[in-house]
Amino acid sequence: MEKLGVAIIGSGSAVPTTSLDNQGLTQLVDTSDEWIATRTGIKERRLAGADESLKTIATMASFKAIAAAGITAADIDLILLATSTPDDLFGTACQIQAELGATKAVAFDLTAACSGFVFGLVTAAQYIRTGVYQNVLLIGGDILSRWVDWQDRGTCILFGDGAGAVILQANESDRLLGFELKTDGTQNHYLNLAYKASTDELIPGVKVNKGNFQPITMNGKEVYRFAVQRVPEVIDKALFHANLSVDQIDWLILHQANQRILDAVAQRLNIPAHKVISNLAEYGNTSAASIPLALDEAVQQGKIKPGDIIATSGFGAGLTWGAAIFQWGR
Ligand code: UT7
């Protein structure tokens, strides 16, 4: 029988070694541990140092996911790297392919900000469902610390660096039970890491824009409002496609943006707190990495077991948002 179903069979994660706690941030901006902890749930975050890069942490997470899945790098057909902070604007997935020795794999980056992992999951699934590829390595990784304005207390308290990875494999039964993806570009201006052009005249009459990317800007209140409203809706839609009800969810893994968002979404969906996975306190918002990082930790801790039903949702810049319902393991 042809295997056209999708199973998510292994996970791995990696974070930089340096940790910055809230107290440390008070040396940079006018803030307090109390304010950050009560408004966001974050206590500390990891920051990539001089000898760390997206490539290094994403490769480490990938090696762990490959081992957990019981495959080898040579088995991988496709590497998808969900990131907004590549080491190279041409992409970082190819560098990871080389590090892993995944010689058969085609590799490319995918950018959908904090929704990147969920968008990547659905993208990977399409290649498997069409019978094109059997083993896909999906990585969510970001080093937002490179792009944070460390003088802006509205944003610098939120973000951290990290990487998480999963292996998706062709399977007789389909464990990706339902999904829904959304974009609203009219709200793009609420969260940006924008390129700012500066005109350079090459020769008379021929101008090019040689600018730079600018630090992250965010309208926190609007992003908060958007998340609390749209995330429950999109999870409901994904559940509908999966033909499941909310009480059949074993675990809710939301993009780790703010504990208040996690609590509000769970409350709106009527999901009890003990089913909500959260590691915000330790890592802050790690963008595309946050879902696979939280997933992998819960798997390592023995919380998530094969057969458990997981509802996951990513949301953020774009604005983009999406949800996927899947059953863990083969
Ligand atoms: O991946 C998606 C990315 N983004 C998000 O998920 C962000 C979603 N938004 C949020 O998480 C929240 O809006 C924040 C945590 C960013 C801000 O929390 P808030 O409860 O919306 O605070 P606020 O912006 O309404 O600010 C309240 C007060 C203000 O003072 P006044 O005007 O009331 O005197 C701010 O100036 O808190 C002040 N403030 C701070 N005070 C201490 C803002 N940032 C800080 C800070 N420390 N770091």
UniProtKB/TrEMBL annotation:
Pfam families assigned: ACP_syn_III, ACP_syn_III_C
Cellular component, GO annotation: cytoplasm
GO molecular function, one term: beta-ketoacyl-acyl-carrier-protein synthase III activity
Main subcellular location of this protein, as a coarse class: cytoplasm
Keyword Signal: no
EC number(s) on file: 2.3.1.180
Record InterPro entries: ACP_syn_III_C, ACP_syn_III_N, FabH, Thiolase-like
One GO process term, biological-process aspect: fatty acid biosynthetic process
Pathway: Lipid metabolism; fatty acid biosynthesis
Reaction catalysed by this enzyme: 3-methylbutanoyl-CoA + malonyl-[ACP] + H(+) = 5-methyl-3-oxohexanoyl-[ACP] + CO2 + CoA; malonyl-[ACP] + acetyl-CoA + H(+) = 3-oxobutanoyl-[ACP] + CO2 + CoA; 2-methylpropanoyl-CoA + malonyl-[ACP] + H(+) = 4-methyl-3-oxopentanoyl-[ACP] + CO2 + CoA; (2S)-2-methylbutanoyl-CoA + malonyl-[ACP] + H(+) = (4S)-4-methyl-3-oxohexanoyl-[ACP] + CO2 + CoA
Region described as ACP-binding: 256-260
Keywords on record: Acyltransferase, Cytoplasm, Fatty acid biosynthesis, Fatty acid metabolism, Lipid biosynthesis, Lipid metabolism, Multifunctional enzyme, Transferase
Domain called Beta-ketoacyl-[acyl-carrier-protein] synthase III N-terminal: residue spans: 108-185
Catalytic-site annotation from UniProt: C114, H255, N285
Subcellular location: Cytoplasm
Ranges of residues in domain Beta-ketoacyl-[acyl-carrier-protein] synthase III C-terminal: 241-328
Function: Catalyzes the condensation reaction of fatty acid synthesis by the addition to an acyl acceptor of two carbons from malonyl-ACP. Catalyzes the first condensation reaction which initiates fatty acid synthesis and may therefore play a role in governing the total rate of fatty acid production. Possesses both acetoacetyl-ACP synthase and acetyl transacylase activities. Its substrate specificity determines the biosynthesis of branched-chain and/or straight-chain of fatty acids.
Notes on the domains: The last Arg residue of the ACP-binding site is essential for the weak association between ACP/AcpP and FabH.
Subunit details: Homodimer.
Family: Belongs to the thiolase-like superfamily. FabH family.
Name of the molecule in the record: Beta-ketoacyl-[acyl-carrier-protein] synthase III
Natural source organism: Hassallia byssoidea VB512170
